[in-house]
Design goal:
The chain has 206 residues and is of the alpha+beta class. Helix content is 13%, strand content 32%. A hairpin with a 6-residue loop joins strand 4 and strand 5. It starts with 10 loop residues before the first strand and ends with a strand. It binds N-(carboxycarbonyl)-S-(naphthalen-2-ylmethyl)-L-cysteine and fe (iii) ion (FE).
């Protein structure tokens, strides 16, 4: 089908200690990754979870693999209902982790976030995964978004990084527990994903 990357080679941008942006790493795999998202969403539709504080999240979520993320204190729950993490997704995530210096990454789950216009994610840490020595691999597809990257304290100053279609970020070691978030999505239409931004995060949750 389309290949939005035919004349742009990927490059790397170190972001912080343990974190690296693999710009355009997705290359021509964007169609296949988007097809995987749609296949997973057929089985487990996108839903807006309620935060422990009682607010409906503006981001819609689904996922697949061995663990399901719940928005409350429970964190992850072993999950046999959803599709397994496919060989294709596993290979993609491991390839990205290896390119970023994490050759031992063994993902068991992925979480998929869908941002519509004005959807955002407030500053948070990802610490419900059992083994925090394993990195997280995140893949951005569709509309661009401003990513906020802070420190180990919520009040630490944040830097802004634009994440664009095909960018992959790998977070481990010193960056694994850094606060991060996404600014409200600006309106637009992307040739592959239409009015949305999708983010897939690969994790070893259990
Ligand atoms: C930094 N997702 O699902 S991806 C999330 O774009 C999440 O949907 C955002 O934060 C999104 O939890 C940001 C980038 C990301 C993912 C995991 C991280 C950054 C991270 C874990 C630790 C530090
Ligand atoms: Fe996160």
């Amino acid at each position: 089908m389309f290949d939005f990357f035919q004349d742009e080679a990927p490059w790397q941008e170190p972001l912080a200690s343990g974190a690296v942006i693999l710009r355009r790493f997705v290359q021509g795999d964007d169609d296949a990754l988007f097809a995987e998202i749609n296949r997973i969403a057929m089985q487990s539709p996108f839903i807006h979870r309620i935060t422990p504080g009682g607010f409906k999240m503006s981001v819609a979520m689904t996922g697949c693999g061995a663990a399901q993320w719940l928005s409350g204190r429970e964190g992850y729950l072993a999950n046999t209902e959803s599709l397994p993490l496919s060989e294709r997704l596993t290979a993609f995530a491991r390839g990205a982790a290896t390119a970023a210096g994490y050759p031992d990454f063994v993902p068991d789950s992925c979480l998929i976030n869908r941002y519509a216009v004005d959807s955002k994610m407030t500053l948070h840490q990802d610490k419900n995964e059992r083994d925090l020595h394993q990195p997280i691999v995140s893949v951005s597809l569709g509309l661009p978004a401003v990513f906020l990257f802070g420190g180990l304290d919520r009040s630490d100053r944040t830097s802004k990084v634009l994440l664009e279609h095909g960018d992959v970020v790998v977070w481990g070691r010193e960056s694994r527990l850094c606060f991060h978030g996404i600014s409200p999505l600006k309106p637009g239409i992307h040739p592959l994903t239409g009015p949305y931004r999708f983010n897939i995060t690969f994790r070893k949750a259990l």
